[in-house]
């Protein structure tokens, strides 16, 4: 499954363009621009499955740093500060990773 099976290529491009500069990534803005906020629970779970590169059932910090590259191979990696802020926002149980339910809550926030 590809991101474009769920999200439009045009929306992905617009969302990535909005956070091209280092330290400009804002997950709420990105989720809105990429069209993820309006997707069903099942569709968000499918996106989570793509982001969970090692299929552990969680998005760990190393996967989160490469978050944008899941949308386009030419996208930049998140900075350390962006990655930490993203993790802090999503990791509500404090285990150092984001589970599917935490990801759902983050997208709908």
UniProtKB/TrEMBL annotation:
Work out whether the entry's keyword set contains Calcium: yes
Query: What GO molecular function terms would the record report?
Result: calcium ion binding; isomerase activity
Looking at the record's lineage, which domain of life comes first?
Eukaryota
Give me the residues that bind Ca(2+) 2, please. 91, 93, 95, 97, 102
Classification via SMART domains: EFh
Q: Has the keyword Transmembrane helix been applied to this entry?
A: no
Residue numbers binding Ca(2+) 1: 52, 54, 56, 58, 63
Q: Which family does it belong to?
A: Belongs to the parvalbumin family.
Q: Which PANTHER family match?
A: PARVALBUMIN ALPHA (PTHR11653), PARVALBUMIN, THYMIC (PTHR11653:SF3)
What function is annotated for this protein?
Answer: In muscle, parvalbumin is thought to be involved in relaxation after contraction. It binds two calcium ions.
- The protein, known as: Parvalbumin
The organism named in the record is Platysternon megacephalum
């Amino acid at each position: 499954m590809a991101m474009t099976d769920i999200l439009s290529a045009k929306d992905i491009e617009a969302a990535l363009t909005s956070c091209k500069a280092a330290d400009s990534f804002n997950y709420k803005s990105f989720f809105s621009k990429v069209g993820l906020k309006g997707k069903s629970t099942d569709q968000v779970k499918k996106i989570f499955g793509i982001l969970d590169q090692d299929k552990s059932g969680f998005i760990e910090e190393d996967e989160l740093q490469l978050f944008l590259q899941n949308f386009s191979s030419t996208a930049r990696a998140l900075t350390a500060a962006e990655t930490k802020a993203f993790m802090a926002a999503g990791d509500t149980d404090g285990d150092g990773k984001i589970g599917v339910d935490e990801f759902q809550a983050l997208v709908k926030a």
